[in-house]
């Protein structure tokens, strides 16, 4: 019996050492080969974030502080608010970022939709979003991209315009043609032209006119309302066409 005990002990010790060596080998052998990155579940990360994460390729999946890399990205990408990191053995790591809450949607000439947060950063929007929307004409100089920031002046003009639209008490489609010109299409298909730099003042005039003035009192139907001048200009369809042709 004593001989058996003496034999079992070194065998157990060898087994424990072998198991320990195997675990150490596996933990160091299991390295990152596949990295994925997304924002708000559906949007791929911008190239510059994906490139930053590539430095993790080949690192140990057990002994690497992936959270340090995630927090570093959050510090430099102001449009992101938090990150969740998921490991999938043997060699995959996924970074799932969340953006700041959006306050409006931006639709470009290619019919792509972007969410814009309070600071002006853009992320690709999910479908079915009920936020107020702004369309950009093809001639508008801004080219939306995930993680990019709208120039501060333009961002504030859009916010002020959307706030001013609340006083209209009717739905309206908003499109920015150029930085100094925007258009509304009212529910009755009348087009309203105004300057976003003076949106609050000009749209207040429009709200007052829609509440106190009857277009039916005019001899010809009005197709366009121009708010860019000291006096409101009303144009018929033919007059509006002539202005466009000039």
Give an overview in words.
This protein is α/β, with parallel strands linked by helices. The protein folds into two domains: 29-99, Roll (Ubiquitin-like (UB roll)); 102-245, Cell division protein FtsQ/DivIB (Rossmann fold), CATH 3.40.50. It is 34% helix and 27% strand. The protein is built from six helices and 13 strands. It has helices spanning 2-29, 47-53, 66-76, 152-165, 199-212, 237-245, and strands spanning 34-39, 43-44, 80-88, 92-99, 102-107, 113-117, 122-124, 133-136, 172-178, 181-186, 191-194, 224-226, 233-235. It has a nine-stranded mixed sheet with strand order 7-6-5-8-9-10-11-12-13. The protein has a four-stranded mixed sheet with strand order 2-1-4-3, covered by helices on one side. The radius of gyration is 30 Å and the shape is elongated. The relative contact order is 0.08. Mean pLDDT is 83; it is low at 17-25.
């Amino acid at each position: 019996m004593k001989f058996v005990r003496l034999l079992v002990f070194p065998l157990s010790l060898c087994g424990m050492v072998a198991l320990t060596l195997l675990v150490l080998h596996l933990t160091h052998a299991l390295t990152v080969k596949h990295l994925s990155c997304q924002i708000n579940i559906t949007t791929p990360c911008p190239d510059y974030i994906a490139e930053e994460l590539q430095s993790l390729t080949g690192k140990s999946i057990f002994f690497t502080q992936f959270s340090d890399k995630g927090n570093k990205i959050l510090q430099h990408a102001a449009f992101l608010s938090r990150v969740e990191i998921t490991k999938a053995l043997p060699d995959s790591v996924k970074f799932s970022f969340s953006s700041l809450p959006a306050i409006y949607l931006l639709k470009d000439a290619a019919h792509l939709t972007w969410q814009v947060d309070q600071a002006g950063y853009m992320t690709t929007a999910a479908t079915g979003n009920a936020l107020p929307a702004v369309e950009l004409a093809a001639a508008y100089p801004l080219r939306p991209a995930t993680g990019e920031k709208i120039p501060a002046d333009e961002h504030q003009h859009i916010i002020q315009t959307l706030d001013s639209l609340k006083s209209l008490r009717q739905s309206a489609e908003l499109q920015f043609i150029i930085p100094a010109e925007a258009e509304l299409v009212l529910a009755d298909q009348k087009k309203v032209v105004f300057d976003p730099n003076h949106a609050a003042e000009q749209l207040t005039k429009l709200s007052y006119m829609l509440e106190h003035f009857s277009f039916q009192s005019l001899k010809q139907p009005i197709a366009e309302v121009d708010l860019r001048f000291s006096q409101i200009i009303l144009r018929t369809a033919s007059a509006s066409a002539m202005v466009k042709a000039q």
